[in-house]
Every structure is written in structure tokens, then in C-alpha cells.
Design a protein that fits this description.
The complex is a heterodimer of chains A (about 200) and B (about 220). Chain A is mainly α and about 200 residues long. Chain A has one domain. Helix content of chain A is about 70%, strand content about 0%. Chain A has 9 helices and no strands. Chain B has 10 helices and 2 strands; from the N terminus they run ααααααααββαα. In chain B, α3 packs antiparallel against α8, α4 packs across α5 and α7 packs antiparallel against α8. Chain B is mainly α. The radius of gyration of chain B is 18 Å and the shape is globular. Chain B has a two-stranded antiparallel ribbon. Chain B has one domain. The chains are: A mainly alpha (about 200), B mainly alpha (about 220). Chains A and B meet through α2, α3, α4, α6 and α8 of A and α2, α4, α9 and α10 of B.
Chain lengths: ~200, ~220
């Protein structure tokens, strides 16, 4: 149980996917100008991360590994993710129109989000169990949401401030991301101390 | 078509990292050491050149509706090949790059060049475009890696720069990655005399740019 807690809270705080593992930087920079879009993007990413972990786990463990095809993980995982995202888009467009109206717009950005492929590969490389994989993905998604929401707040302040000409736009955004990342460094060691 | 310009545009004018802001994830993640930046750059260049050539050859055979999945599978195949090569020949680099080696698959530089260049141009131009973009990516990674390595570890490509310098751990940390990257882009701003204004430096060349813009506005693409 404590192993799962360490993985789950570690993925949210100490090993935050965006701020310490650098996965999903594009949406972090591109879709964090407004709180609403930050939340919508995070919800879509979390859902796909968890589902992708659930689907890739049995395929990797019971199909690829016994046949010594583990090296095909990148090709197989990205295909599964691309197909799954496409399928979700078709299904919710047909049967859950309100959900599609609020989340559909984020789905095209998810196939090429490193965090989704990253979490499935990390699960396989670390030989996580099914439960560990799911909680790693769930924690990763929540950590992604936390980073995006905090950063959406920070960005509002940047836009309102008077910056040196050279730092206007992207450079200021990156330096602000650096400061947010420092605050996450402060969580180092906490998770292990509490649960181990 | 001017082949020379096709090759050189990726080096500086349309540098994928410093101007087009593509592939930010590996740029930040592997650049704690200049050597890792070089390794990542070389691996990505190889995949980029191969996928550009293959996609350019197959451009008339891939149906438009399934082109994105097809591109990704071609790219993932070359990524698997590169990770085999690195694991057997450069095991240390393989360990250092870790999961980001597999994540070359979803590096938007590669998908972006496939979508915007290789699927519209002939093989020779696609080859040169891939090579130029790959080298531009590599140069940017070495630059950022060298700055972070010198300041964060007091070494340059593994060689000590002397005892007089006290390394600043911040620059090796993830936060230091964001900070150095931001400062380097600010420097590009100054050096280009603000010609690369905030409009030009940005996500506009990302294959996802339109979808991303719509997501920001909360509108459904159709």
C-alpha cells in the first residue's frame, strides 16, 4: 500500500510530470492562459493517461513480454494511444455531446503529448503492477492539472507587469515556470518521509 | 527550389528550438550535460532525416485521413532502431537519455517536418530539410547543455574548468532548465535586434498550433 502512496503522491509533487520530468511542456505553455482551458486540458489528459495505462499494461505484460517483444513498446504504445484518442473522440461526439463540447477541443492535442506516451513507457520500464501503473497515471494527471492551474494564475500576473523588452513573451513565461518549479523542489523527500 | 537555403534555414533563421519552440520537452530534460545534448541531438537528427526521406517517398501512397498515425508509426520504427543502436554502442548515453529516447516519437519537430515539409516535397529537399533542422536542434541543445553544465557542475563536456569555480546546483535542477532556456531565448531576441519579436518566436510552427489555439479559446475545431 505504501508503495502505491509513494508513487501516487510522488507523481503529483516531487516528480511532477511537467515541472520535474519535463513532459507535456507544450500544453503547459500553450494552454495555460485561461483557468477554464487549463482545467479542461488537464481533465482530458488525466483521463487519457489513466485509460492508456490500463490498456497498455495487459498488452505489455501478457502479450509483448512473454513473446520477447518488449522492445516494440514504443511502436505499440503510441499506436494504442492514437487509436484510443480517436475512438474516444468518435464515441463522445456521438453519445455524449455535452462532454464533447467541453473536452473535445483538447483531444487532438493529446496523442502527441509526451506525458501520455511517457507514463506508459515509465510504467513498463519500472515494472509497475497494474495498480501502481494506474495510480502513477492518476497522480501524473493530477500533477499536470496542478502545474497548469498554478501557472494559469501566474501568467495573469506576468501579462499585467512591465517587463524588459528582451524578456517579453516566451522568455518571461519560461523564467516564471522556473520559479514555479523551484516551489515544487521544496517537496523533495516529503513523500518518502511520510509513507515509508 | 534552393537546396542550400532548405538546408541552412533550420540552423539559425528557423531554428526549431530557439525560434520555433518545438521539442521543448527534450530540450529541457536532457540538457544538464552538454554531452547528453549532443547525444539527444544526434539521435533526433537521425530519426528526423530517415523519417523525412521515407515519408517523402511514400507521400503519394499514404491516404490523407490516416496520414498522422502512419507518420507516427514510421517515426516510432526509427526510434526503436536508434534505441537499439545506443543501447549496444553507447550504454551510458542510453541510460542518461532514459525515457526521452522513446519520446523522440512524439517530438513535435519530427511530426512537424513530416506534416509541413516531407509530405509536400521531394526526397532530396526533405533529406536536406531534416538534416538542417536536426543540426539546428543539436546546436541549440549543445548550447543550453554547455551553459547548464558549466554553471551547474563546473565541467565542460566532462572536462573540469578548474577549482576556482564553485558549481551552482540550481542550474542542474529542473528549475534551472526553464531559467536558462528563458534567458537564451531572451538573448536571441536581443541578438536578432528584436526582429524575432514575440510574434515570431512562439508556437506558430507547431503542427498542433491551430488545435492549441482553439483549445485556448475553447472552441471546437471543424
Amino acid at each position: 500500500m505504501s508503495a502505491i502512496a509513494v508513487i501516487f503522491f510522488g507523481a503529483i509533487l516531487t516528480d511532477n510530470f511537467v515541472l520535474s520530468k519535463f513532459m507535456g511542456i507544450c500544453p503547459f505553455l500553450g494552454v495555460s492562459k485561461k483557468m477554464n482551458s487549463a482545467l479542461g486540458m488537464s481533465a482530458a489528459v488525466t483521463f487519457v493517461m489513466v485509460m492508456a495505462s490500463m490498456i497498455t499494461y495487459p498488452i505489455y505484460t501478457f502479450l509483448l513480454v512473454p513473446n520477447e517483444l518488449g522492445y516494440l513498446q514504443t511502436v505499440v504504445f503510441i499506436l494504442i494511444i492514437a487509436l484510443f484518442v480517436q475512438l474516444v473522440e468518435i464515441i463522445i461526439k456521438r453519445y455524449a455531446k455535452p462532454l464533447y463540447n467541453s473536452l473535445g477541443v483538447y483531444l487532438p492535442l493529446i496523442t502527441t503529448n509526451c506525458a501520455v506516451l511517457g507514463v506508459t513507457i515509465l510504467n513498463a520500464d519500472n515494472a509497475y503492477t497494474f495498480a501502481e501503473s494506474v495510480f502513477n497515471a492518476l497522480g501524473g494527471g493530477i500533477g499536470f492539472a496542478l502545474a497548469l492551474v498554478i501557472f494559469a494564475g501566474v501568467r495573469g500576473r506576468i501579462d499585467a507587469s512591465d517587463l524588459p523588452k528582451a524578456f517579453k513573451g516566451i522568455p518571461a513565461t519560461l523564467v516564471a515556470a522556473s520559479i514555479v518549479s523551484i516551489s515544487f523542489l521544496g517537496f523533495g523527500g516529503i513523500v518518502e518521509k511520510i509513507f515509508v | 527550389m534552393n537546396y542550400f537555403r532548405t538546408f541552412t534555414k533550420g540552423l539559425i533563421k528557423e531554428n526549431p528550438v530557439l525560434v520555433m519552440l518545438l521539442g521543448t520537452c527534450p530540450t529541457l530534460a536532457v540538457t544538464t550535460l552538454a554531452m547528453n545534448g549532443l547525444g539527444m541531438g544526434a539521435a533526433t537528427t537521425f530519426v528526423l532525416v530517415c523519417s523525412n526521406v521515407v515519408i517523402s517517398l511514400l507521400k503519394n501512397f499514404i491516404p490523407k485521413q490516416v496520414r498522422l498515425p502512419s507518420f507516427i508509426v514510421i517515426i516510432a520504427g526509427f526510434v526503436t532502431f536508434v534505441s537499439f543502436m545506443l543501447r549496444s554502442n553507447f550504454p551510458e548515453l542510453y541510460e542518461a537519455l532514459g525515457v526521452f529516447l522513446s519520446l523522440i516519437t512524439v517530438n513535435c519537430i519530427i511530426l512537424g517536418r513530416a506534416e509541413m515539409f516531407a509530405s509536400k516535397n521531394n526526397v532530396r529537399a526533405s533529406f536536406l530539410d531534416g538534416l538542417g533542422m536536426g543540426l539546428g536542434f543539436t546546436l541549440a541543445l549543445i548550447l543550453i547543455g554547455a551553459i547548464r553544465e558549466v554553471l551547474g557542475s563546473g565541467t565542460f563536456f566532462g572536462l573540469s574548468i578548474g577549482d576556482w569555480f564553485q558549481p551552482i546546483g540550481f542550474f542542474s535542477s529542473p528549475a534551472g532548465g526553464f531559467f536558462v532556456f528563458g534567458c537564451v531565448i531572451a538573448l536571441v531576441n536581443v541578438l536578432s535586434n528584436y526582429k524575432m519579436s514575440s510574434k515570431k518566436i512562439g508556437c506558430a510552427s507547431c503542427p498542433n498550433a491551430s488545435a492549441c489555439g482553439q483549445a485556448e479559446k475553447g472552441e471546437i475545431a471543424e
